[in-house]
Structure formats: structure tokens, C-alpha cells
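Tutorial handout. Part one gives the primary structure; part two gives the three-dimensional structure as C-alpha cells.
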Amino acid sequence: MLSKKLKLLFNPYLLGIGLLLSLGSCGENNQYKQLLADNYYLIEANESLTETLVHDIFSPPVASRIYAYPSIASYEIVALSAPDNYASLMGQLNKSKPLSVDPSAYPKANYQLASLAAYYKVALQLIFTEQFLIENRDNLFEKIQSAGMPDEEFEASIALGDAVAEEILAYASEDNYHQSRSFGKYTPTEDLGSWKPTPPAYIEAIEPHWNKIRPFFLDSASQFAPEPPPAFDTIPESTFYQDAKAVMDARVNIEGEQEEIAFFWDCNPYKMNVKGHVMYAEKKITPGGHWMGIAGIAAKTKKLDWKATSETMATTAIYLFDGFISCWDEKYRSVLIRPETYINIYMDKNWLPLLQTPPFPEYTSGHSVVSTAAAEALTKLLGEPFHFVDSTEVKFGLGVREFDSFRIASSEAAISRFFGGIHYLPAIDNGVEQGKGIANLINQKIKTRIE
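Part two.
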């Protein structure tokens, strides 16, 4: 016969309550680990950063820098968390040194949270408007703490993230960006074939000294300088005139999907609208921002864990960054006239491109260079074919497009500039080759996985 004590222990009602309390306690303690194991939070942080860059109207080259360093900081935590599987980038990147952070000094740290903390810490130092990122970060931190993360673990995680972030920020401070803010503006010349400001705002040329920014893997900004563009000429039989005529004719004969492609890949943060005597800016994502969005979509599509997601975001950002340096080096070497200017002077004074011409020289096409480089980075990591639905532009009023590989997407991004009346075909074709050269070099140098 059971004793009174044993009867109480086997009481179904009390057992049920005990089981619920036990499950509730375990669920509360483990919930934050399950939340952080998801790749969503880093992708969300990147989307919040994109929102900030659009709001602050950063130029495409500068935006690539702002994406790169937070992504590297996030990834360095990955390398600390799994040193047998992931290799640190510090020591690989030009003029970088291995991290001095000792993770054993933070024994209670949660690496997933530290990775996110490092991302936010670096990103907030590189932007103007902080509210979007701060709100996003604070909501995340509150959610993690509410899900049961102990205070000691939370504090150690933030401390580890901050320690890595400080070293990445120190590295970033030496890339010549801050010095370049005081460099002189570009002054257009009287040369007939050289770039001139374009309507409607006639904005001065942006980032004429971007080739002086330290690249991550290129030996120099000019390492992959493309062949020169066709010689400027106004004779109808000349190659240059025929290239311009091709742009003009494409605008007249553009078909529905070609127009859709042009607008989908526009990514011009400087678009100005004129209504009567009023001019106002229409804020848009940058080309690099579009590809960072694709990197996040790819990570979700592949169901990558938080470590591989961080690797994907950092690698894509690095290829984009070096791509912009190489492209801008050529832009201000050739300083080539835009199709809109040429056509208006020599062919049709009333002609307008489908898209608004961005404020910098024509050759080579930035979309072609950086899209190719980013596509090669993602292909190296995730392979092909790789079907994905690109919804990056939905929040900016556009639809979605589907692709069966990153290379197909990059080819569409490149030709979109011809459909939009922004570039001659040589800038597109040679820009693609330039992007491939950059990507091939980085492919040979970069190492994120330890075999």
C-alpha cells in the first residue's frame, strides 16, 4: 500500500502541474538559443542598414564601404566561434592584422548574439541617421533577454561583440576614407568627349578620388583596368557614334520586359523629380544594396545557419567593395561623356533616356562590374543553378523577378543600363569582364572555410 507521501508524488494533477512548470522552465531557458540560431536577425540588420542608407542618400561607392565593415565584424565572431571550420579574414585583408581579441576572456558569451552586436556596433559608427538601426537592435536585444538569456551571458556577448567591433573600426579608420573627404572636387573640362553634369539637377561628379580607398584584396585600384573605350568621334560612320545611336534606338524601340528590367535594376539614389518649379529627390537603393539584399534572400532560400549566413553577407560585401574601387578608378581615368549628353548635342536635342543619368562618368558600367563580382562571390559559395526570387525592390515600389542563377541575374543587371539609356554597350561588356577579373582574383585569395 502506497504511503501518503508517495500518493502525493503520483497524484496526476500534481504531476501535470510539475510537468508544465518543467517544460515552461526549459522552454524559457532555451528559447533564446533557438531564436538566435535562425539566420533572420543578421539579414534583418542588413535590411535596416539599407533603409538607413536610402534615407541618408549615400553614394553607391560609400554605401559599399558601409555594408562591408559591419559584415566583416559579424563574420569575425563566426571565426572565433568555430576556429576549426571558419578562417578569420583579419590577416587576409590588405594591411590587416589578426584579431587580438581572446574569446576565452568571455567564457559566458553567446557567439550568435556577439556577432549581431558587432554588426550593429560597427554600422552605427558609419552612418548619419541612427534611429532605424538602434530601434532594430534594441528590439532584438529585448526579445533575446525576454526569451530567457541570463544577464551574465547577455553582457558577455555584448562585450565580446564590442571588442571585435573596435578592432574592425580601427582597421576601417586606416582605409583613407576620412582623408578623402577633404580631397578636391572634380572639375569638368572643355574636352568634347569628357563627362559633363547631366539634367535635371546637374549634380557634380561623386567620389572622384574613390580609387585612393584601400581595397580588401586588389593589389591596386588599377589592377583590372579595362581596355580603353572607343575613341570619341562625332562622324556618323565612327564606332563611337554608332554606339550612341544604338542607345538612342534602344530607347525608341524598347519592349515591355526590357523596360521592366531597366526600372528593376535602376538603383539610383540620386534620382531627382521636377514638377513645375519644384524639384525633389526620390530615394532609392544602391546597386550594392540590391546585391546585399540578394545575398540575404539566398541565405534564406538555402536555409543557411547563422554562421554561413554571416559568411555569405561578408563575402558578398567584400567583392562589391573592391568592385567599386576598380570601377571608379576607370571612371575618372577615361572620364567619358554620357549617352544623354552626346545624343543631345550631336543627334537629337530632345532625346531623353528611360532612366535618369547618375552623376558620374560613363565608363565602365558600375552595375556591370559590381553585379558580376557579387554574382561570382555568391556562385562560389552557393553554386549554380540556384533558383531564387528577388524581392529586394518590393519595399521600394517595384515587383519581383525570378532567376535560376546569380550569373543570370548579374547579366540582366548589366544590360539593364543599356535599356535605360545610361551606358553604351562597351561600358557594359568591358565592365562585365572587369568584374570577372576582380572576382577571379578574390576567389584565389580569400579563405573563409578551413578544409
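Part three, for discussion. Confidence is low (pLDDT under 50) at residues 1-28. The CA atoms of residues 333 and 363 lie 9 Å apart.
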